[in-house]
User: What shape does this take?
Amino acid sequence: MTPQIKVEDDALKEIKYLLELKGLDDGFGVRVGVRGGGCSGFTYDLNFGRKSKGDVEMEQDGIKFFTDPKSLLYLKGTTLTYTDGL
Assistant: This one.
């Protein structure tokens, strides 16, 4: 399956660093979701966690990404980036 969410190299590097820093095992990945609320009608959610029943799993550069099927409808084509500034 082609990943529905693209993750840039700087973001992958930071995710790997944080997973290692927190001592999370291989079963953990990044949970990406969309929830109702916020000014634009949606709130985006990023957390570390494990795969839940029914989740879609993607992998990039050895990092797992999990999302529920409903959120994936809104996330297709999304690119995750990382910056350390304001």
About this structure: The two ends are 35 Å apart (CA to CA).
